[in-house]
Design brief:
Elements (H helix, E strand, L loop, with lengths): L20 E5 L3 H12 L3 E6 L5 H10 L3 E3 L4 H4 L4 E4 L8 H8 L4 E2 L1 H6 L5 E6 L4 H14 L4 E5 L5 H7 L4 E5 L2 H5 L8 E4 L14 H8 L11 E5 L3 H10 L4 E6 L7 E5 L2 E5 L6 E4 L9 H16 L4 H10 L8 E6 L2 E5 L6 H9 L5 E5 L12 H7 E7 L4 H7 L5 E5 L2 H11 L5 E4 L12 H14 L1
Parallel strand pairs: 1-2, 1-4, 2-3, 4-5, 6-8, 6-9, 7-8, 9-10, 10-11, 11-12, 16-20, 17-18, 17-20, 18-19
Antiparallel strand pairs: 12-13, 13-14, 15-16
Main location: cytoplasm
Catalytic activity: UDP-N-acetyl-alpha-D-muramoyl-L-alanine + D-glutamate + ATP = UDP-N-acetyl-alpha-D-muramoyl-L-alanyl-D-glutamate + ADP + phosphate + H(+)
Subcellular location: Cytoplasm
């Protein structure tokens, strides 16, 4: 425990504690950012992390002179909070959270807290898949258009830290269902729902309706002056929109039918038309840097946001054309002996892997596996049958992958390191094939994170 915590009464910030005591659970990016903002606003701040705090965050808290503890939760220092800001990674079932809720202490997200202290317009993007790509693309378009814009949420630097230190007019926020669960008064000026497919069901009592309700919190508190954008081809989204009846101006997008106002695909051209005679058209072959069916959806969503903000068509097209996708999302690593190696380690659920396979034009050796979150692999079966020649399992327990695909591919091999998986996949592939790391599972059995998994895969490819 940081010794600062033991002499809190001597902390100069305590003199400014007229607003109460804020306790922050979790000392990662969002927690440290929340501490920075809470301290700036005159709260008595304490940070508690049940895990080991990373050195860079420990240093940041020490620099702020914010008291903290690592590898424990001291109830006497937490249960006396006026309000608690909880990391999205901590489930509501955690014992300390249950005690706080039982005694009536408000438990909120960093996003909820930060929004109180900014008048910036928020563009909030959620969905089971495509959030990061769409958030980055939207940010890229707005920045290129000269808007004073920040990027935060589940990506980039903490929203709260940016509110404390910057003065942006707009924020593009990637919002996970875990963040939405702890948002109450927060309002998105522009809300985007990309899709809803089974993910993280272990946090939702394995009930899809609970997960859907969480995602639809993206529209809570919106008014008729706000905007809601959603995919009209996504079955769960259509049902959710019908059930929750958003009151905001609604703009759907589709690649299967013409939608006006909204966005649609026709003859390899995206048309975005929100108002009469103000349309934007883009060729999916020549105007979009991002290829693949899933990226048409992502581009439509970003394009609608840009048109809502009345950006120039030329700026939108130029930005769509020069955007570079994020690391670990269908990232081309190398071509070795005529075999393409593709890193899609960010695919931590089945639907992400479906999108990855759907975009493949070559025969695939698929590296998959890890921590199974209650996955239903049935949706992959047709694509595996038609495109996958072998599966290389990368995880401690691969039984469910074997059970799901033993009738669909001839070869399924177990491996327990990125090096081993990459070498075996290389030997199973031939010139013209692709080796695709798209795990459909979380990474925490063998790796620190999906980034660590992707980086180890890339390093192994370069050693071939």
């Amino acid at each position: 425990m940081n010794t600062n915590q033991n002499n809190r009464s001597g902390n100069p910030q305590s003199a400014m504690a007229g607003q109460g005591r804020v306790v922050i659970l979790g000392a990662g990016e969002s927690g440290v950012g929340a501490a920075k903002l809470a301290q700036a606003k005159g709260f008595d701040v304490f940070v508690s992390d049940f895990g080991i705090i990373a050195d860079k965050y420990k240093s940041a808290l020490e620099k702020l002179n914010v008291p903290f503890e690592s590898a424990q939760h001291t109830e006497a220092l937490i249960l006396n909070a006026t309000e608690v800001i909880k990391s999205p990674g901590i489930p509501s079932t955690a014992p300390i959270v249950k005690k706080l809720v039982a005694q009536g202490t408000p438990v909120i997200s960093e996003i909820e807290f930060a929004k109180r202290y900014t008048t910036a317009k928020t563009i909030c993007i959620t969905g089971s898949n495509g959030k990061s790509t769409t958030s980055l693309l939207t940010y890229h378009i707005l920045k290129n258009a000269g808007l004073n814009v920040g990027l935060a949420g589940n990506i980039g630097h903490s929203f709260a830290a940016q509110v404390a230190e910057e003065n942006y007019d707009y924020y593009v926020l990637e919002i996970s269902s875990f963040m939405l669960d702890d948002m109450f008064e927060f309002k998105a000026d522009i809300a985007v729902l990309l899709n809803i497919t089974p993910d993280h069901l272990d946090r939702y009592d394995y009930k899809m309706e609970n997960y859907v309700a969480s995602k639809m919190r993206i529209v809570q508190n919106q008014t008729a002056d706000d905007v809601f954008i959603y995919c009209a081809d996504d079955e769960e989204s259509i049902k959710a929109v019908a059930a929750f009846q958003p009151v905001a101006k609604t703009f759907p997008f589709s690649i299967t039918r013409k939608i006006e106002p909204g966005a649609y695909l026709e003859a390899q051209t995206i048309t975005i038309l929100l108002e009469p005679n103000k349309e934007l058209t883009m060729s999916i072959l020549s105007d979009l840097a991002l290829q693949g069916k899933h990226n048409i959806y992502n581009s439509m969503a970003s394009g609608i946001v840009a048109k809502v903000l009345e950006l120039r068509n030329e700026t939108i097209r130029e930005s769509m054309g020069n955007f570079k996708n994020i690391e670990h999302r269908l990232e081309h690593v190398a071509k070795i002996s005529g075999i393409d190696f593709i890193n899609d380690s960010k695919a931590t659920n089945v639907n992400s892997t479906w999108y990855a396979l759907e975009s493949m034009t070559a025969d695939v050796v698929l590296i998959m596996g890890g921590v199974d979150k209650g996955n239903d692999y049935n949706m992959l079966k047709d694509l595996v049958k038609s495109k996958v020649k072998a599966i290389v399992c990368l995880g401690k327990d691969n039984k469910r992958i074997h059970d799901a695909f033993e009738d669909d591919v001839e070869i399924i091999v177990n491996t327990f390191s990125a090096d081993e998986a990459t070498q075996i996949a290389f030997h199973l592939a031939k010139r013209g094939d692709a080796v695709l790391l798209s795990p459909a599972c979380a990474s925490f059995d063998l790796f620190k994170s999906y980034e660590d998994r992707g980086n180890q895969f890339k390093a192994a490819v370069r050693e071939l």
